[in-house]
Amino acid sequence: MRSKIVITSDFEALKEEILGLYGVNSVRFFFTEDFLLENAKEVAAEAYIAESEPKLLVLCAKNFRVEAQNSLLKIIEEPPKNIFFIIACESKNMLLPTVRSRLVTENRLEKKQREKTGLDYKRLELKEICAFIDEKSALERSEKLGKNDLKELIAAIALEATAQGVKFSAEELEYFFKAVRLAELNTKTHALLTPILLMIYEKGLR
After folding, report:
1. Using 50, 70 and 90 to split pLDDT, how confident is the model at 206?
2. Threshold 0.85, pTM exceeds
3. For residue 184, is pLDDT > 90?
4. What are 146-151's contacts with CB under 8 Å, separation 24+?
């Protein structure tokens, strides 16, 4: 989890992705057409609520007022413990240079569509699982699959399996969220993917 600016025109897709990665209990969304000073004060108040676990504050707006941005500069530069920010807008030009200089920018308007895993989750076979994990582990060893890539991969597995008709309990969905948090702590790829894919495999045997 890290603070950043996301340039996107699809706030709902961003929301779904963030919830898939971090879970509803770790995120607070602030959606508005026009981000005003009063909205900035609300964000600051939420940020200063003490948290023992990381919390992500997501600010999405069509327009960010100058006075609102200025009021957030200090808290963005020196956030309270365990607090992270995502500022989402349709163009980086909507944000002051002083805001942009404090956060990395991810331009989703130029980003390719999420790659598919290529797995049939309702007909998984053990040899297929092993081959998939070996492939991703090899990418990890060659430093072509980092922790952010792994987090996106875990989210993709959950989304694709659900789309293919695999049903997950609340406890099983929580395991996906836990796996994402462990990926952030640099847990190895095979240690995270193996139990997830075996869980889905066992569902296919029932």
Report:
1. low
2. no
3. no
4. 147/183, 147/184, 147/186, 150/183, 150/189, 150/192, 151/21, 151/180, 151/183, 151/184
